């Protein structure tokens, strides 16, 4: 089907290999010479591998398929695998990965815009997007309301937020990213 593929002799060589920065997926058997595909699936995130996973096996059971799906597998295929089923699973997985990479690029751009804010603009953004009125933000920062409005306008322009609602959504995404970074 004209997909570029990469084979790996073991779990360790896969985890250590350079991964391409383009949409893809991992197709792995449950039984591997040096472990199993379900364990690989669990170790991938810790190694910075976030491609969707398709698990296949000739020895699967319901508990195994549930475990794989709960861990985020896109599909669980039993052997012998029909060509169409494999193709459909790969299309679904690479589509999901394309969306993941696009979202990642959006987040990088959002972080880049946020980095252009001055420390005062960041303070104003935090207060206003948390629901404070300009007057309340001014009092909290010991500034005039006019100064808050100037910082607010500048920060919204830098963040490319047309409305307060846009700005709040961007702040929520940034907040979500900082929580994810703290969890890692």
TL;DR?
The chain is mainly alpha-helical and 184 residues long. The protein has helices spanning 11-16, 37-44, 62-70, 83-115, 119-129, 134-141, 145-159, 164-183, and strands at 26-29, 31-32, 35-36, 53-57, 75-78.
Describe the structure.
It holds the Pfam family Response_reg. Keywords: DNA-binding, Phosphoprotein, Transcription, Transcription regulation. Residues 1-94 form the Response regulatory domain. The model has no long low-confidence stretch (mean pLDDT 91). It is built from eight helices and five strands. The longest helix has 33 residues, at 83-115. Helix 5 (119-129) packs across helix 7, helix 5 (119-129) crosses helix 8 (164-183) and helix 6 crosses helix 7 (145-159). It has 184 residues and is mainly α. A hairpin with a 2-residue loop joins strand 2 (31-32) and strand 3. The chain has two domains: 14-101, 3-Layer(aba) Sandwich (Rossmann fold); 116-178, Winged helix-like DNA-binding domain superfamily/Winged helix DNA-binding domain (Arc Repressor Mutant, subunit A).
């Amino acid at each position: 089907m004209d997909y570029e593929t990469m084979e790996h002799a073991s779990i360790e060589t896969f985890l250590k290999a350079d991964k391409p920065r383009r949409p893809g997926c991992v197709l792995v058997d449950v039984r591997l010479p040096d472990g199993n595909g379900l364990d690989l699936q669990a170790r991938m995130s810790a190694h910075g591998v976030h491609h969707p996973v398709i698990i296949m096996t000739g020895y699967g059971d319901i508990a195994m398929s549930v475990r794989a799906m709960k861990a985020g597998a896109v599909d669980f295929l039993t052997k012998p695998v029909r060509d169409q089923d494999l193709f459909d699973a790969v299309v679904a997985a690479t589509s999901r990965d394309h969306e993941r990479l696009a979202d990642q690029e959006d987040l990088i751009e959002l972080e880049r815009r946020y980095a252009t804010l001055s420390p005062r603009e960041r303070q104003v953004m935090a207060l206003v997007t948390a629901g404070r009125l300009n007057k309340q933000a001014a009092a909290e920062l010991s500034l005039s309301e006019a100064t808050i409005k100037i910082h607010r306008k500048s920060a919204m322009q830098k963040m490319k937020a047309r409305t307060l609602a846009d700005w709040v959504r961007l702040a929520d995404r940034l907040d979500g990213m900082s929580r994810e970074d703290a969890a890692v």
